[in-house]
Design a protein that fits this description.
Chain lengths: ~400, ~250
Amino acid sequence: MLGLGKKDLMFLLIVVLLTLTAPILLNPFPEGSAMAQFNAGYPDLMQRIAIFAIFAVGFNILFGLTGYLSFGHAAFIGVGSYAMVWMMKLLTMNILPGLILSIVMGGLFAVVIGYVSLRRSGIYFSILTLAFAQMCFNMAYSVLTPITGGENGLGPQIADPRILDAVNTSGSVPEVNLFGLSMRATYKMDLWGRLFQFNAGYYVCGILSVLMFYLALRIFRSPFGMMLRAIKSNQHRLNYTGLNSKPYMLAAFVISGMYAGLAGGLMAAMDPLAGADRMQWSASGEVVLMVILGGVGTMLGPVLGAGFIKYFENIFSKINDSVLHDWFSIFPKWLENLLVGILHPFVGQGWNLTLGVLFMLVVIFLPGGLIEGGQRIGRLFRRKPDAKGPAPASTPAE
Amino acid sequence: MGILEVKGVNKRFGGLQALGNVNLSVTENTVHAIIGPNGAGKSTLLNCLVGKLIPDTGSVLFDGQSVLGRKPHEINQMGISRVFQTPEIFADLSVFENVLIPCFAKRDGAYRLHAFETIAAETDILGKAEKMLRDVNMWDKREMHAGALSRGDKRRLEMAMCLSQSPKLLLLDEPTAGMARADTNNTIDLLKEIKSRGNITMVIIEHDMHVVFSLADRITVLAQGSPLVEDVPENIKGHPKVKEAYLGEAAH
Ligand SMILES: Nc1ncnc2c1ncn2[C@@H]1O[C@H](COP(=O)(O)OP(=O)(O)O)[C@@H](O)[C@H]1O
Ligand SMILES: [Mg+2]
């Protein structure tokens, strides 16, 4: 069904279920308890996880399959965001035209940047993509200010034309919506001492991320995906086999650019303000971290990586010294102070340090990323008699 | 005129004349062996045929068309496949995928964006790849990483990859090097069978004289970049010039 084998279909079904029930699953701790700050089930964070999952899954089609490491994918995020905001300004606050345009614009930019950058491979390719992204970033900040809003960023204004929308009499910028359903609409449910929030914006992001995940799964299982892996493995052999690897690479680059464009569009749809800093090199680097942390070339790895990093960014950065003192107040004062002193650099502003340490641990001990960690744990539990001889080749599954 | 016509090919690497005025004419549907000591320029000659190198001067015609200046994938599409001296396979992929890729390439040509086809649904191609692997006795190993194979198995895999494209001209660069005796004999049998099915021309570089004399219809001896003699195997065997070229070389 859906062009997938039985195993993949199960896999997809699990992803769908997890996405739909995320507002419940990510809120395991009761409201008001000491652990409540570890809850991730609030709309803002869930939206971000879904959006970055789209970004990372698309990036993985390029990096994971072909091995070409782009350091400039944030440019497509920025392009997608601007496209979305411009559609909101000119056409309608309905996000659909904006989403379409952000995918198209991401793709167009990727054709140009990819065409030039793919003339080189390895580090030179990475540097070229980085140069392009920085160029976009700097231009968005300076000469393109009329289009991008420069330093102030670009957001919908009351006076915008919005030619498809009804005349706005509310006296404020109308709500971002999808055919009338406000992206901020949230159904709140108080249950078992927990507050579950079912947010329209999250479900838009979540459903799109499942769809994009499905497309990526199809690409992974297609002859096209196999050719991309062949490029990573031995581009010479592929050429001597009668295939021109260039168009395959460009297609992979453009597809990942469209994923990034969509992610950028969604970012602007959830928080209607597009700024140039979304294109900065640090944003390009972040997606590389996500994919490597989760597991390069695996299906679920980029999703895990995106979730992991966004979770840490939001949760660890909120823990401050007074929270720490709260936790350790049961200990004698000197021990409390000592523990807080030790943990202080790792939380709040220092969450990057925690992330850095975790990243290093993963890269050193789990080169296959979090996915490999999961697989190792799984193997511990069902230790099959390994009488089948040499390990079978990895099919990029789970 | 032969299916492959090499005329006056020269290739220099800095001060080294790797190929000096090489002329070679290969008749269609025959096996043409090229022998000669290490460093004679045999691999360099094949490199000039598949677009890996461009000769300094001279011409290379395949089927009446020049291959010079064409990209490797274009040359392959003309019907030339090559087994390399150091196996060129997709080491990170499974043995089965290694054979699937050339099968798809043969069907699709240089480029086709088949992003939403499923490999599992392409029964024709799966069947063909299976047959190829069975032909080289590697079906049991289909799920292994190609990179984990022994050297001999890598060669047989590469041969299966090339043969799966039913090339008009198959170039084999020391196909049995690193193979156990039994596998060498299997390879000879396989190549003989391929030959008997017809419609294929082979150029084979080989150090193992048993292989050469089992397969070749004609033999060219290359020494220091130039053809020394070209003749049928019977006349090459005791040829004084050949002995001279191999002197000091343990011909194995
Ligand atoms: N790409 C290259 N650059 C420089 N020298 C080369 C290159 N390829 C081959 N040679 C040299 O050309 C000569 C012929 O090499 P080769 O064709 O590999 O010999 P063989 O007959 O053993 O296959 C050798 O001396 C080798 O060192
Ligand atoms: Mg050689």
